[in-house]
Write a structure and sequence with these properties.
Blueprint lengths: L1 H25 L8 H20 L8 E2 L2 E2 L2 H15 L3 H31 L14 H13 L11 H52 L4 H18 L4 H5 L4 H16 L10 H10 L1 E5 L4 E3 L7 E14 L5 E7 L3 E2 L1 H5 L10 E14 H8 L3 H11 L1
Antiparallel strand pairs: 1-2, 3-8, 4-8, 5-6, 5-7, 5-8
Helix pairs in contact: 1-2, 1-3, 1-4, 4-5, 4-6, 6-7, 9-10, 10-12
Protein name: Cyclic nucleotide gated channel subunit beta 1
GO molecular function, one term: cGMP binding
InterPro entries: CNG_cation_channel, cNMP-bd_CS, cNMP-bd_dom, cNMP-bd_dom_sf, RmlC-like_jellyroll
Length: 384
């Protein structure tokens, strides 16, 4: 956190120079009466840069060819870190792209004042006439000429014509790229939401066409809404399947190993066996009151509670709660690991609230344990 705060100060110093140096070069804002304030800010920025080099050593990783790129890389590193913690990062990307657009207009405003001063303020109808706030009026010209709004006086001299042509070309190419980039950012950001809505709409259409009862339809809608809100996707396997096996393994270990490694059933098992098992786990969300499994059913899966709770219930109306099983626990392993006729469920298990469970298929577990005979013996012994 301290490092991110420091990056903010480096980024502000960088922005001071990037935005104010062109202004001081073009406009007559730096005078003998106020130069001490400008120098104070310059020395403050220099002090921040030197401190960044000498104390905050991570910046030295950006040394390239003997040049230490301090403030420039700090600016983008701060942006990346800020974007990473935002829930809707695409909004920040749109703001960042907009800032590039505004900076382009800022530079053009400075160049227009310089050109007007070169030609002579008020010497023609095209140049700045020297009235009002010089920066605001030049910025207004920059907006109209770069975005090609029109309505500007016609240039008369060769210098003015050349300047205007360059502005039009930059406006056509550079601004079309920026606006296109902004469109792509928003489109990419909303692609997931559009996919979710398409899945929801198609499912509702399917249920309606086959006259599925309203109660079932409402439960399906609830599952869609909750699953999307809690994990931002309907099936995380769709994301992971695109990655190479090594990357999938790394992600599965980072995300789920801390949960699975705490399960008592797997204590003492080969670490690599657990890694292989993480690759086979499937994450499923159960709605409140849904039965995960029922007594007497053929057991083909084992369950690990990732989030939420489940209850073992019984009685004539299946409303008597015998025990509540919480996150980090495992159940269903007896019917999965036991041999002979012990593969039927021995209890009714129902979700208490929303429950996110890892499911491990019997066939997948058998394929894994073939390579780990010692872990296989240990698990069968614990399952008895």
């Amino acid at each position: 956190m301290v490092y991110v705060v420091w990056l903010f100060f480096v980024m502000m110093a960088w922005n001071w120079n990037v935005w104010l140096i062109p202004v001081r070069w073009a406009f007559p804002y730096q005078t003998a009466e106020n130069i001490h304030w400008w120098l104070l800010m310059d020395y403050t920025c220099d002090l921040i840069y030197i401190t960044d080099i000498l104390i905050f050593q991570p910046r030295l990783q950006f040394v390239r060819g003997g040049d230490i790129v301090v403030s420039y890389m700090a600016f983008f590193e701060f942006n990346d870190r800020l974007e990473a913690v935002m829930k809707k990062a695409y909004i920040y990307r749109v703001i960042l792209t907009t800032s590039y657009l505004l900076y382009s207009l800022h530079i053009n405003a400075c160049l227009f004042y310089w050109g007007s001063d070169y030609e002579g303020l008020g010497s023609t109808k095209w140049v700045y006439d020297g009235k009002g706030n010089s920066y605001i009026r030049c910025y207004y010209f920059a907006v109209k000429t770069l975005i090609t709004i029109g309505g500007l006086p016609d240039p008369t001299t060769v210098f003015e014509i050349t300047f205007q042509l360059v502005n039009y070309f930059v406006g056509v190419f550079a601004f079309s790229i920026m606006i296109g980039q902004m469109r792509d950012v928003v489109g990419a950001a909303t692609a997931g939401q559009n996919y979710y809505r398409a899945c929801m709409d198609n499912t509702i259409k399917y249920m309606t066409s086959y006259h599925i009862p309203k109660e079932v339809q409402n439960r399906v809608k609830t599952w869609y809404d909750y699953t999307w809100q809690i994990q931002g996707m309907l099936d995380e396997q769709e994301l992971l399947v695109q990655l190479p096996d090594k990357m999938r393994m790394d992600m599965a270990v980072d995300v789920n190993y801390s949960i699975v490694s705490k399960v008592a059933l797997f204590q003492g098992c080969d670490r690599q066996m657990i890694f292989d098992m993480l690759m086979r786990l499937k994450s499923v969300v159960y709605l409140p009151g849904d039965f995960v499994c029922k007594k007497g059913e053929i057991g083909r899966e084992m369950y690990i509670i990732k989030q939420g709770e489940v209850q073992v219930v019984g009685g004539p109306d299946l409303k008597t709660v015998f025990v509540t099983i919480r996150a980090g626990s495992v159940f269903g392993e007896i019917s999965l690991l036991a041999g002979g006729g012990g593969n039927r469920r021995t209890a009714n298990v129902r979700a208490h609230g929303f429950a996110n469970l890892f499911i491990l298929d019997k066939r997948d577990l058998s394929d894994i344990l073939v390579h780990y005979p010692e872990s296989q013996k240990l698990l069968r012994k614990k399952a008895k």
